[in-house]
Amino acid sequence: MSNPDGLLVDIAAMVESEHNNQMSLTVVVPGAVITGRLAPVTLWWERVAEVLQASEHLKPFAALFASPPESRTVPPTHLHFHRAKILQGDFGLPHTGGMYRIAIDDVSSWTVGDLSYSDS
């Protein structure tokens, strides 16, 4: 989307306003539907650093995420998802959820709430 949705930018800014803010959201981006919880960028960076630090092979990359950049872009330019899934058929990948950073400009549509499938 060349002109980001102002309401989506406002939602991202509100999530960014406090470290503990989170909101369920589903977005459509080129090639994927992603559903999960938006999280503040600082929380997102912390979680990515923890995952990388726990991996023997990826541990050196953890330093890149040790501290988020001090200067924040206002308004936000990215959505930071925590425990997010890419919806594929009748299930989400990965099963446990992942960490996704999505440019707001790439979102073509969205809805509040996360989508999930039941076995029924």
Order of helices and strands: HEEHEEE
Judging from the principal axes of the Cα atoms, what is the shape? globular
Mean pLDDT equals 85
**Category by helix and strand content:** alpha+beta
Account of the protein in words:
There is one protein chain. The chain has helices at 6-16, 41-54, and strands at 23-29, 32-38, 78-88, 91-103, 109-112. It is an alpha+beta fold. Strand 1 and strand 2 form a beta hairpin. The protein has two helices and five strands; from the N terminus they run αββαβββ. It is globular and about 35 Å long. It has a five-stranded antiparallel β-sheet. The chain is 21% helix and 35% strand. The chain starts with 5 loop residues before the first helix and ends in an 8-residue tail after the last strand.
Gist of the model:
The protein is an alpha+beta fold and 120 residues long. Helices cover 21% and strands 35% of the residues.
Topology diagram in text:
Layout: H1 6-16, E1 23-29, E2 32-38, H2 41-54, E3 78-88, E4 91-103, E5 109-112
Antiparallel strand pairs: 1-2, 1-5, 2-3, 3-4
Features:
single chain; 120 residues; five-stranded antiparallel β-sheet; 21% helix
